[in-house]
Design brief:
The longest helix has 9 residues. It contains four helices and 13 strands. The strands form three sheets. Strands 3-2-6-9-10-5-4 form a seven-stranded antiparallel sheet. The protein has a four-stranded antiparallel sheet with strand order 1-11-12-13, with no helix packed on it. The chain is an alpha+beta fold and 177 residues long. Strand 4 and strand 5 form a beta hairpin. The model has no long low-confidence stretch (mean pLDDT 93). It has a single domain, classed as Roll (Pnp Oxidase, Chain A).
């Protein structure tokens, strides 16, 4: 074993599930952020945490509305999913800039992205500041999905996207730029 810098360690630990968190801004316009830092934190009740940088526009949205939908984009959505991770919703409407279509959620105001593999509707119950990020802890209030869309996206060292399914199918050759 050798000591590594954080960039090399992130690369070696890849891939990370690539998700999209849909929030609302102060005008109640949907905003989408691409992120890989999420996890389940409880089974009963089912809870999820996401980590968002303090400087991100979505951070402001999450603090304001206290709800989000965590979507796992499916294969075929990689180009639009990547755009949501590299462009700020402060400057563009990501639903207008992508082919994503919003679908009404059941219990929260932010919409679900049509065609994703799985979507979790969440209500934030707590948050913890950790250095330059905040961990938003939320209770899952509804779950939606498309069993026919098995492959969802993974980020490799924050430089490219691949897809894989729970059945072990992998596609390493996605075009998204």
């Amino acid at each position: 074993m050798q000591e590594l810098d954080k960039h090399k360690a992130f690369e070696l630990a890849s891939p990370y599930p690539y998700t999209l968190a849909v929030t609302l801004d102060k005008r109640e316009r949907p905003n989408i952020i691409g992120l890989s830092w999420w996890m389940f934190t409880s089974w009963q009740p089912l809870m999820i945490a996401i980590s968002v940088g303090h400087q991100r526009y979505s951070h402001e949205c999450l603090e304001l509305h206290r709800e989000f939908v965590l979507c796992f984009p499916s294969e075929g959505q990689e180009k639009d999913a990547w755009l949501c991770g590299i462009k700020s919703g402060k400057k563009i409407d990501k639903f207008q800039e992508t082919s994503f279509k919003p679908v009404h959620s059941k219990f929260v105001k932010p919409p679900i992205i049509d065609g994703v593999t799985v979507a979790y509707e969440n209500k934030i119950v707590d948050q913890i500041k950790t250095g330059d990020h905040t961990i938003f802890i939320a209770e899952v209030v509804a779950i939606h999905g498309n069993p026919q869309k098995l492959n969802h996206l993974y980020s490799v060292h924050y430089t490219k996207i691949i897809s894989a399914s729970s059945q072990g199918d992998i596609n390493l050759d996605l075009e998204y730029k």
